[in-house]
Amino acid sequence: MSQDTAPQKYVILIIDDDRKLCSLVRDYLSGYQIDCDFAHDGTEGLTKAVEGVYDAILLDLMLPGMDGLELLRQLRERRMDTPVIIISAQTDVSDRIVGLEMGADDYVPKTFSPRELLARLRAVLRRRTPVSPGGGQPATLSIQGLTLNTYNMRAELNGVDLELSALEFRLLYFLASHAGQLFSRERLIEEVFGRWYSGTDRAVDIHISALRKKLDDNPRQSNWIKTVRGNGYMFIR
């Protein structure tokens, strides 16, 4: 006799000093099996993010005590891979790029609709832990000394931890698991960043550059990630 499976419930942390916005987001998300915890300044937000267990974090950039980018930097320095969506009134493209460089998973301007936020949040939660193509247990992918463990999102090269951010890991895993295939920046954004990502495709270049540094990969004579000028990127077999 089959049993109904209850929808998965998530808990997220919202770090924002706009208490009214926090309440509105909580009220909306509560109808979709997403509970919210709050922090209203940067210092409190960092403490809660480090000590608590959350499925995702919504992070404002302009916070009292500690700004959002510094908070994000400290989270990633601690190798915390909790997905982070920046929500900010700052809509400059440069702010989005800096946030992505520092390990943010998405960027949503504060003019967002609740439905848009929910869609982006769901996309981030779906992408959090890659699984094997058959949908079974998480896989370990090994290629010429490079090992990618999707269970703990850890990447090692010849036994040395590469210390990748969550987004860097997903990008490298996607390319490595499709070795020899060429992907455009637009396709990588859809597959790795999520179709709801609204930034520029420059974010792909930024993360590829970061991966190359950690892989000690010379783009002029690459052993890992090849640039096909005007077309995109390919993981070398």
Plain-language structure description:
This protein has 237 residues and is of the alpha/beta class. It folds into two domains: 10-127, Rossmann fold, CATH 3.40.50.2300; 140-235, Winged helix-like DNA-binding domain superfamily/Winged helix DNA-binding domain (Arc Repressor Mutant, subunit A, Orthogonal Bundle), CATH 1.10.10. It is built from eight helices and twelve strands. The strands form three sheets. It has a five-stranded parallel sheet with strand order 2-1-3-4-5, sandwiched between helices. It has a four-stranded antiparallel sheet with strand order 6-7-8-9, with helices on one face. β7 (146-149) and β8 (154-157) form a beta hairpin. α6 crosses α8 (202-215). The longest helix has 14 residues, at 114-127. It is elongated and about 50 Å long. The relative contact order is 0.10.
